[in-house]
Amino acid sequence: MKPPIRYEIFPSHPEAHLFEVRCTAADPDPAGQKFSLPTWIPGSYLIREFAKNVVRIRASSGRRIVPITKLDKNTWQIAPTDGPVTVTMEVYAWDLSVRGAHLDTTHAFFNGPSVFLKVEGREGDPCEVEILPPKGARYRNWRIATAMRRKGAKPYGFGTYQAANYDDLIDHPVEIGTFELATFMACGVPHDIAITGRHRADMGRLCHDLKVLCETQIRFFGEPAPMERYVFLVTAVGDGYGGLEHRASTALLCSRDDLPQKGVEAVTNGYRTFLGLCSHEYFHTWNVKRIKPAAFTPYDLGNENYTTLLWAFEGITSYYDNLFLVRSGLISGNAYLESVAKSITSVLRGSGRRKQTVTESSFDAWIKYYRQDENAPNAAVSYYVKGSLVALCLDLLIRQQTSGRKSLDHVMRALWKRHGLKDIGVEENGIEPLAEQVTGLKLRRFFHQALRETSELPLGKLLAGVGIDMEIRRAESSQDKGGKRASKPEKALAQRVNLGIRTTDNCSELKITHVLDGGAAQKAGLAAGDTIVALDELRVTPKTFEGRLGSYRPGETVQTHAFRRDELLVLNVTLAAPPADTCVLTVNDDRSAATLRRRWLGTI
Ligand SMILES: [Zn+2]
129 C-alpha to center of ligand 1: Å? Predict the structure, then answer.
């Protein structure tokens, strides 16, 4: 058996946010071993250049210092040696996100790509990691939460952990500190939830709800579950949201108010958001971590890894995340329809949907979705949100054309059997023929339109087929995200005016973040970054802006004072009624469609 690549990670200076990380190769390349750090982390499609956080690096063999040469931004080569070599790095960790590493005197968190060097040519070798505690009495109570397999370390303890190879090594984020821990079993598999950060969550309820959710998903793909254990690593903060999927765990960042509070029985909007995030990342355990694009097998960790399939891996996952909350009995069918209506609204509000297809959006994730600028709504469409609507349409189409005998569920299970279980990547053109085969339907036209064109999805027609009316109305206020019936008649909504802008909502000034294509603001010459200070010579703030606009009618012109940088502009803006871009879904009494709907969503 090959000797393992040995790693050691030590929070050497928590107060300076520094880890000391060692990597030892027992039999390095005699020509001079190369080491590299990934430039991105799987699941988050942006080049992040983790090597930028390497503060110091040195190499040694026994007691001898070995010269080290940097070859490019993330690769180092050591001089030829004839014995084991150790590379020691000091890594700066001050990124409180699910994608990087974070260390201070309250806790430590790291993802492998930020801290573990890849020994070039030895990616398949087994790995061992010794996780050491920081020095000092204040860290006495720290323990470890990770799904990495233990080798000698006690449960939740410091010591040695192991991984099958480098890819496995960097797929287990690690939380170290005084997190709150709770455990539950789902289909015989132990699940941990470790929460870092101050919070007052009802851990009993969390375990109860996550157990139902996890069991529903495991049974969907079929027992046994593909992992031996699973860990939810949660960081609770004042305001934050994010998740990253792994084979046997997920790292989540959430607002502490989104966690269920003791004594509150209802599923609040915040808790629904949190459960949806958990459901999303858990579904990835199958869809993207095991059913993978062929383009990701193996990952190219030094460069962008292009695929047109993120609409499926993120979009289908986004479709199922809230759907599994309904199937688990955690939210009602009506609450689900409200979330779908909000997704439809969000896509309708960006004219980018008419310019970028969902496959283009997938391919360009690296430079567009992950690097959104002020023009994003006018230029791009989200492969998450539109992808989830493509999945919705596909599911409803299959259900209707097979009279309920087949659904997207069958396609997902076939993907699991043919690709996930067998560890065979999904080719770029792999999903469409498989869906046709599984359902016996001709879906080529649907896929072409949904994936490679920018025309509107056939949502209204397909929803009508399951007895749901889709209404597209004008927004009632800037807070109106869709999903609910308007409190005023359409005639009144058509009398409202709108500038066609988005603004920051956490600022004392009315700063424009986005100017929407074809809107009143764009026509008048306002731009992103401008600060509106007055309308018709009356001062406006974020608080008073909407009320002030309420006294105008479509067609009227308002003199607008705004600053662009430090220059005052005076512009005449001709106001327009808000566009019809807000979706509401309601169940109708079409009896012929009720059976199909019940099979899809249960009784509403
Ligand atoms: Zn995702």
Answer: 28
Q: What are phi and psi of 198, to 5 degrees?
A: -70, 135
Q: How far is the CA of 45 from the centre of ligand 1 (A)?
A: 11
Distance 289 CA to ligand 1 centre (A): 10
Quick one: pLDDT band at residue 507, thresholds 50, 70, 90?
confident
Listed in sequence order, the residues at least 6 apart from 306 whose beta carbon sits closer than 8 Å to its beta carbon are 295, 363, 366
Measure 141 CA to ligand 1 centroid, in angstroms.
33
Question: Which pTM does this prediction carry?
Answer: 0.97
pLDDT of residue 488: 93
Query: Do the bridges between strand 230-237 and strand 249-255 make them parallel or antiparallel, or are there none, so unpaired?
Result: parallel
Residue 277 Cα to ligand 1 midpoint, Å, equals 9
Give the CA angle between residues 6, 168, 159 to the nearest 5°: 45
Distance 60 CA to ligand 1 centre (A): 41
Could you list which residues have their CB under 5 Å from ion ligand 1?
A: 314
Whether omega for the bond prior to residue 224 falls within 30 degrees of 0, making it cis, is yes
Digit-coded pLDDT (tens) for 6-44? 999 999 999 999 999 999 999 999 999 999 999 999 999
- At 603 the pLDDT is 81
